[in-house]
Model the fold of this input.
Amino acid sequence: MYQFTQQSLPACKPVLTPTSVISTLFLMGIFCIPIGLLSLHASLSVVEIVERYDSECVPHQFRLNKVAYIKDSLIPKNCSRYLKVPKYMKAPIYIYYQLDNYYQNHRRYVKSRSDKQLRYGLQYNDTRSCIPEESNDGLPIVPCGLISWSLFNDTHSFFRGTDELRINRKNIAWKSDRDHKFGKHVFPFNFQNGTLIGGAMLDPNVPLSDQEDLIVWMRTAALPSFRKLYGKIEEDLEANDVISIYLLNNYNTYSFGGRKKLVLSTASWLGGRNNFLGMAYIAIGSCLIVLALVFILLHVKNPRPYGDAMYVSWNWKGIPN
Done:
């Protein structure tokens, strides 16, 4: 016990010599830089088109009062946008909607849901966590809470020339969410029946496990700018193709200064476009190699004789206990 408390048990303690330190830094740098270059190449190979439409889809006479426009149900919300494909895009092409300045991570918003109700439906009656959207006219709301109430409800249709591009909206949610978090026998009930409508309606004849728009939306984002998967185009797009988008600009982001964007993106083996990972690996690898070169210069300029490892304290013979 004495040896353990005094940390004098046999142990392996590396001796950091200039050669070992410089070699380690070089090896780590040589390891990081190729990974960074591969990651960056994969990210840059992703073709991405981003189109902001919240401002352009407001009629000119309402540009100074966008909130009045979005709240007036008598004003048509139809809008057309046109995108030119910059490079060949290989299927599947992922369609995302992007919201900026939208704080899904707000504490009250995040807590306004009932995971047990999403799983078991009306069998679970305790929906106090869903306040203020827990009931309407004395009847429970399924699904309850602010998150489901504010479900994104803009719709998009895509055409290439006169041919409509079919959008596959199946399997856009995580399989684990579909199978384990949303009930297969739970159906929307009393949803969006109040005087204040938040977002999209839900089909009362389709179980929650099959309403993948809702499942995607219920997985809240950590940052105020986020993208959520809307669907997939399962045919290739050629360079210089002109894509016509016919959308309904229903969702109110004007009240809080939010922005709406439509994103079309391919994917690489690393996922979507994200240059940060590759640049981080390259930067770290470069710093390690620079440090190794600095240590080499210092070692050459001011060499120091190595100490004999036999004289370090843990190799001494006859140390008194």
In short: The first strand starts at residue 48 and ends at 52.
